[in-house]
Amino acid sequence: MQPSPAIRELQLRDFQNTVAQNLTSAMALWSNEPGAMFIGSDPSEWLTTRAAIEQMVRAAFEHSDETAGSGRMPDDLEIVAYEEGTVGWANLRYTAKLPNGGSFLMRWTVIYHQESGQWKGVNGHVSVGVPDDKVMSFFSPS
Questions:
Q1: How far is CA 98 from CA 29, 84, 105, in A?
Q2: Which of 7, 44, 97, 113 could form a disulfide with 88 if both were Cys (CB 3.0 to 4.6 A apart)?
Q3: Beta pairing class for 78-84 and 46-47
Q4: Cα(23)–Cα(26) distance, rounded to whole angstroms?
Q5: In the prediction, which pLDDT does 66 show?
Q6: Beta strands 118-129 and 78-84, pairing class
Q7: Are the CB atoms for 135 and 128 separated by under 8 Å?
Q8: Chain mean position to CA 119
Q9: How far apart are the C-alpha atoms of 103 and 135, rounded to whole Å?
């Protein structure tokens, strides 16, 4: 495997499209093939079709004023990308800032596959970076 400037640039453009709420461009990077999947941090975000992914992205754009969607690129965005043959992946992390002044660490992984010479997303996962001790205290009996 080797670092992938192409996937890094693709992921940066995708992130910019997401910040700009450009649904058409954001979804153009997702595969139409069966098996495309997105897993979010909410337990209900187990999306197994491109249509379900698009519905989630559309809803996120519609409610972005209520969430961390500030319309700005984060100052601390880090993208690490690699590829091997027809498979590549990008890992992202950044601090999401809320309108109320709060913030939290977001982490993304997107797996790409080459389809007709173009990288297309086939799997995405997002998580909120929470220290293990805080997660364990949340689930500890009172």
A1: 27, 37, 11
A2: 7
A3: unpaired
A4: 5
A5: 43
A6: unpaired
A7: no
A8: 15
A9: 17
- Residue 13, both tokens: 């453009």
Helix (H) or strand (E) holding 123: strand 118-129
Concatenate the DSSP letters of all residues of 32-86 into one string: -STT-EEE-SSTT-EE-SHHHHHHHHHHHHHTGGGTT--SS--TT-EEEEEEETT
Low-confidence ranges of the chain (pLDDT < 70): 64-71, 142
What is the pLDDT at residue 117? Answer: 94
Number of CB atoms found within 10 A of residue 23's CB:
16
Distance CA 9, CA 62 (A): 26
Whole-angstrom distance, CA of residue 80 vs CA of residue 70: 23
- All residues at 6 or more sequence positions from 75 whose CB lies less than 8 Å from its CB, including other chains: 95
Residues 6 or more apart whose CB falls under 8 angstroms from that of 36 comprise 30, 49, 50, 53, 121, 122, 123
Structure tokens at 51: 């249509």
